[in-house]
Amino acid sequence: MTALGVLLWATALLALPGRKVRLSSLRKKRVALRMGKRSHTAVLLLGAAAIAIVFASISGVYLMSAAGIVAATVSFRRRAVRHRRAHDTEVDSLVAGLETVVGELGAGAHPAVAAGVAASECSGTVATAFGRACGRARLGGTAHDGLRVADSPVSGELMIVAAAWRIADDHGLGLMGLLSAARSDMLARRRFRTRTQASLAGARATGTVLACLPVVGVGLGQAMGASPVRVLLGGGLGGVLLVIGTALVCAGLLWTDAITDRVCR
C-alpha cells in the first residue's frame, strides 16, 4: 500500500460518525455503549498509527519525533487548562455550598440537615462530599470525615472545611462562624487568583509569541530561497536540529506555564 493510500485510509477512519450517532438506537443498552466507546478508541488509535506510518515513510523518524513532542505538549497544556477550569467550577460550587450551610445553621437547622441541603444544591465532588458528611452525621458519626475527597479538584479546600468542622466538633466552637471564615478565605483566594491570572495574560502571550518566532524565521528563510525546510526535513544534522529546536520551544512553553501557575497559587 502506498503512502497516499495509507493517508486516505487514515482520513476515512477519522471521519467516521461519532459514537452518539452510531449508537443512537442503542442508547439504553450499556453493553452497546461500552462497545461503542472501545470501537471509537480503536479507530482513533488506528488512525494515529496510520498517520505515524505515513510520516515515517515520507520524512523519517526526525519529523515523527518532532510531531510527537508537539502533540505531547499540546495534550499536556489542554489537560492543565481543563484542570484549572474544573478547579474554578468546583470552588464556586463549594463556596455556594458553604453559603447554604451557613444559612441553614443560622436558621436553626441541624448540621446534618444543613449538609444535606447543600448536597442537593451543589454539583460535582462537592455535592458528594456534603452528601457523605450528611450521611455520617445522621448515622452518629463525624461529619468532617465525609468531607475529605482525595480525588477532587478541590481536595485542599475540602480539607480546610473538614478541619474547621472537626474543630467545631472537638472543642464546641460555633460551626457557623468557622464555616463563614472558611468561605471568606476561599472567596479572597478566588479573587486574588482571578486578578493574578488577568495580570499575567500579557506574560503568557509574550511566551507564545516568542515560541512562534523560530517558525517565523524558518518561513522567512524559505521565502528568501535558503530552503531551511528542505534542510530540516532532509534528515541527518537537519533532522537532529529539528528535534532539538522543537523540544526547546515546547520546553519554553511548559516552563512559562509552570512559572505563571506557581504565581497564581
Automatic annotation (TrEMBL):
The chain crosses the membrane at residues 42-75, 198-220, 232-255. It comes from the Bacteria. Keywords: Membrane, Transmembrane, Transmembrane helix. PANTHER family: CONSERVED TRANSMEMBRANE PROTEIN-RELATED, INTEGRAL MEMBRANE PROTEIN-RELATED. This is Type ii secretion system integral membrane subunit. The lineage of its organism: Bacteria, Bacillati, Actinomycetota, Actinomycetes, Mycobacteriales.
